[in-house]
Amino acid sequence: MSNLIRIQQFFIFMIVFLASMSAQAEQADTVGDYKIHYNAINSTLIQPDVASQYKILRSRYEGVINIAVQFKKEDAYTGIPASLSGTASNLLGQQQNLKFKEIHEGKAIYYLSNFHFSNEETFKFVINVKSDDGKLNHTVKFQRKFYTN
Question: By the 8 A CB rule, do 98 and 88 touch?
Fold first, then answer.
């Protein structure tokens, strides 16, 4: 696959990610010079070829969490490597462990994890984020309701 096609697929994925974020307030935690962007979407919003490239399971019952960790250098943020672990729990207390995979696209670094849901199911996400330099140790918490489509 040519680099141009891979770059186009990446931009399609990021457009979907950003469009889903624009429907809500920006979801980011700022901790000192670090910013953690996070979102969870239905996997069917991701184009099939992009999902295949990044080995993302697409299904009306699968969601995807996207996390980006950034560090502020001078007046700009840049993506940094981090270690992530976490859980997705429904309101009945049923818990899924999240397994994040690191994606590098140019200077961007982000982390993806799938999770399974049923129609109109609400999840509480608790994600531990540690920067590789050891200076960031933060827990991101958010809640979202999912619908099959």
Answer: yes
